[in-house]
């Protein structure tokens, strides 16, 4: 599939998806969401073990396309918000780990996309924030829900009410970002991290992701039960990855998943 606003490259078992609309700082519009949906539902994601999402040029993503939104009716705005949520849920629900390699500005909807990823690596020079309140808007792609689940209500309110970009170091201190990189090494460091993760049991990675994602929507007792159930299920005879992982450890060799 040919994309206008996306670039995809595969390095071994790692996929690198770049938002490629640098003149508009990779701002998200309906066309970008269409292409992202196509990509996320394609075979490309089935054939990799870890996906990295990054941006071309000086921005990761500077938000939803403000120019396109200017003409929106309430129904258009509602639909756009729902479309964005569907796309970000596709990212969050992928069975493989997803790393956001934040090479520059991650603002508004751009930060919301990064929040739908599992891990965020950021350039020390990146700025991150939710500037919607400056436009009389609120985050509309689930940011009001994902951010407090990640960093707590106080830190989320701080970012959403401040409406200013914060430095990558501040974002790291708040727990929005998990790893900082020198600006020219963001992608390389993300690939290294992806490579380490790609060596782990794909089934275990899928389950970790599912337990965290589902668990955040449940009470802790029910979530704990769900975890025990899945842990027990791993000891069924058909669970080859668990068998291989344990055997490899005992035989002092690398597992072959
Ligand atoms: N949308 C559309 N175009 C954009 C956007 C954007 N979000 N951000 C930048 N651009 C464009 C600029 O207009 C400019 O275009 P042109 O060359 O044609 O004038 C080009 O990208 C380069 O930008 P700048 O010249 O402004 O670059 P600077 O380095 O001077 O500044 C900034 C970079 C600080 C990132 C600045 O561009 C900026 O403040 N951008 C807007 C950031 C922002 O407010 N983002 C939040 C948008 S709202 C949002 O995301 C809500 C999500 C929920 C939507 C819910 C659905 C209804």
From TrEMBL:
Gene3D superfamilies: 2-enoyl-CoA Hydratase, Chain A, domain 1. Residues 235-257 are annotated as: Disordered. Belongs to the enoyl-CoA hydratase/isomerase family. This is Crotonase. It comes from Marinifilum caeruleilacunae.
């Amino acid at each position: 599939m040919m994309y206008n606003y996306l670039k995809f490259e595969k390095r071994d078992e790692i996929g690198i998806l770049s938002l490629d609309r640098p003149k508009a700082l990779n701002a998200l519009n309906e066309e970008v969401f269409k292409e992202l949906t196509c990509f996320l539902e394609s075979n490309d994601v089935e054939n990799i073990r870890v996906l990295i999402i990054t941006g071309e040029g000086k921005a990761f993503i500077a938000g939803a396309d403000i120019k396109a939104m200017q003409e929106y009716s309430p129904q258009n705005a509602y639909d756009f918000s729902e479309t964005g949520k569907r796309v970000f849920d596709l990212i969050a629900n992928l069975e493989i780990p997803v790393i956001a390699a934040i090479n520059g500005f991650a603002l508004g909807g751009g930060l919301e996309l990064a929040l739908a990823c599992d891990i965020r690596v950021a350039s020390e020079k990146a700025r991150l924030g939710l500037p919607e309140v400056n436009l009389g808007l609120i985050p509309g792609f689930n940011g009001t829900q994902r951010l407090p689940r990640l960093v707590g209500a106080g830190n989320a309110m701080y970012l959403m009410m401040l409406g200013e970009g914060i430095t990558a170091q501040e974002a790291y201190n708040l727990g929005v970002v998990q790893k900082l990189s020198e600006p020219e090494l963001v992608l390389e460091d993300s690939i290294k991290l992806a490579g380490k993760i790609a060596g782990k049991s794909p089934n275990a990675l899928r389950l970790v992701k599912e337990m965290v994602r589902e668990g955040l929507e449940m009470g802790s007792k029910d979530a704990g039960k769900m975890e025990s159930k899945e842990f027990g299920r791993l000891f069924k005879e058909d669970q080859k990855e668990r068998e291989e992982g344990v055997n490899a450890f005992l035989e002092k060799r690398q597992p072959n998943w």
